[in-house]
Specification:
InterPro entries: Noelin_dom, Olfac-like_dom, Olfactomedin-like_domain, Quino_amine_DH_bsu. By secondary structure, the chain is an alpha+beta fold. The protein contains five helices and 22 strands.
Length: 478
């Protein structure tokens, strides 16, 4: 942009100089002032009256200068001098006219260049304006793309939080392994210091004392849930697995029921180890399809809800026959009052230290949870309790020592939120969190023998340990 400005400045400066020259020099040349003119020849002084005078001056359409000159009166004495002066004046005027023509051409050329540059500058201004508009549009587009990316990433936040939690657990596991190694080293040294028979007797004595202590434990109140321990990954997203809480110590059979409907196959494993390895010991083909995942094995028999009904079935594993069946009066079924995850989980059968239970909802109780204690042989309802907790708002539930514990959700962030005691017919809101590691629980049942919660967590079979507040009986207790 600098050269055009310099040229324009030069043109304006030159025109100013010409104007100044014309105003000062031209009058002298044509005799408008009283200055004496001298030439190489000796001339007489010419007064203004006798000299040439400019009468008027103007400019033609092409920018040329036009002068009207009044000639002096002629006399013989001064004729030669005045002729010579006129000739000199004409020559100077011609020279000046040629210079003006040259300057006019230069001025016109520079003016055209300025016009061209003006057009280019206007074009550049329009381009800059277009670039500015495009930049705003592009920024808006990029902002929208970034926003969409952020919206895509938001669901990953719970996953990242889970990774952080898992990292902490791994650190804890490392520390526990390190501590366990130290303990094992101490045990190894202790074993070397004692005779084997003496050590064996000490172990038996300790075991007897522990059993005696366990017999004195009364039913406790749930205080804490820890874990989970992942036992196996198998099956669909929904299912159930369990052991018998009334089985003997040597009987560790596991039963496995995949999916929540359209199935009649129960798989049996002799132990947890066989279950993990997949070594089946037996398969049962039930006479009816089951509904939901809330079955229970109790004292050698399977209790389940018959598909599309509120009928409870008692099936014997030993005989392979149905021992009893009974309709649970007024109980909703087939996704009328399920848990929050659905899956025909209307009727939940469970067992604890006291006996066999059914948890469900009725229209008479406005869809809120009803707890019924069942006779394990006839399935007759012994007693019922009506709670004020909506069943469709519950994630899952389980019984411990005659108290029903309800979770607030089956998804991440689940916790035991509500409990109802059948002993006192009272309820309370609790806050007992647990780690829903795989984000979707479709079965959660307490086993009194193991004092653990069995869960089916999104195709993972897991165990949770529970901490109960116990009252130990003393010899003075009646």
């Amino acid at each position: 942009m600098s050269p055009p400005l310099l040229k324009l400045g030069a043109v304006l400066s030159t025109m100013a100089m010409i104007s100044n020259w014309m105003s000062q020099t031209l009058p002298s040349l044509v005799g408008l002032n009283t200055t004496r003119l001298s030439t190489s020849d000796t001339l007489t002084q010419i007064s203004p009256k006798e000299g040439w005078q400019v009468y008027s001056s103007a400019q033609d359409p092409d920018g040329r200068c036009i002068c009207t000159v009044v000639a002096p009166e002629q006399n013989l004495c001064s004729r030669d001098a005045k002729s010579r002066q006129l000739r000199q004046l004409l020559e100077k005027v011609q020279n000046m006219s040629q210079s003006i023509e040259v300057l006019n051409l230069r001025t016109q050329r520079d003016f055209q260049y300025v016009l061209k540059m003006e057009t280019q500058m206007k074009g550049l201004k329009a381009k800059f304006r277009q670039i500015e508009d495009d930049r705003k549009t592009l920024m808006t587009k990029h902002f929208q793309e970034l926003k969409e990316k952020m919206d895509e990433l938001l669901p990953l936040i719970p996953v990242l939080e889970q990774y952080k939690t898992d990292a902490k657990l791994i650190t804890q596991f490392k520390e526990e392994i390190r501590n366990l190694s130290t303990v094992l080293t101490g045990i190894q040294e202790e074993i070397g210091a004692y005779d084997y028979e003496e050590l064996h007797q000490r172990v038996l004595s300790l075991e007897t004392r522990l059993r005696d202590c366990m017999k004195k434990l009364t039913c406790g109140k749930l205080m804490k849930i820890t874990g989970p321990i992942t036992v196996k990954i198998s099956g669909t997203r929904f299912g159930a697995w369990m052991t018998d809480p009334l089985a003997s110590e040597k009987n560790n059979r596991v039963w496995y029921m995949d999916s929540y409907t359209n199935n009649k196959i129960v798989r049996e494993y002799k132990s947890i180890a066989d279950f993990v390895s997949g070594a089946e010991s037996r398969t049962y083909n039930l006479p009816f399809k089951w509904a939901g995942t809330n079955h229970v094995v109790y004292n050698g028999s399977l209790y389940f809800n018959k598909y599309q009904s509120n009928i409870i079935i008692k099936y014997s594993f030993d005989t392979g026959r149905v021992l009893a069946q009974r309709s649970l009066e007024y109980a909703g079924f087939h996704n009328v009052y399920p848990y929050t995850w659905g899956g025909f989980s209307d009727i939940d059968l469970m067992a604890d230290e006291i006996g066999l239970w059914a948890v469900y909802a009725t229209n008479q109780n406005a869809g809120n949870i009803v707890i019924s204690q069942l006779n394990q042989d006839t399935l007759e309802v012994l007693k019922s309790w009506s709670t004020g907790y909506p069943k469709r708002s519950a994630g899952e539930s389980f019984m411990i020592c005659g108290t029903l514990y309800v979770t607030n959700s089956h998804l991440t962030g689940a916790k035991v939120y509500y409990s109802y005691s059948t002993k006192t017919s009272t309820y309370e809101y609790t806050d007992i969190p647990f780690h829903n590691q795989y984000f979707h629980i479709s079965m959660l049942d307490y086993n009194a023998r193991d004092r653990a919660l069995y869960a089916w967590n999104n195709g993972h079979q897991v165990l949770f340990n529970v901490t109960l507040f116990h009252v130990i009986k003393t010899e003075d207790d009646t």
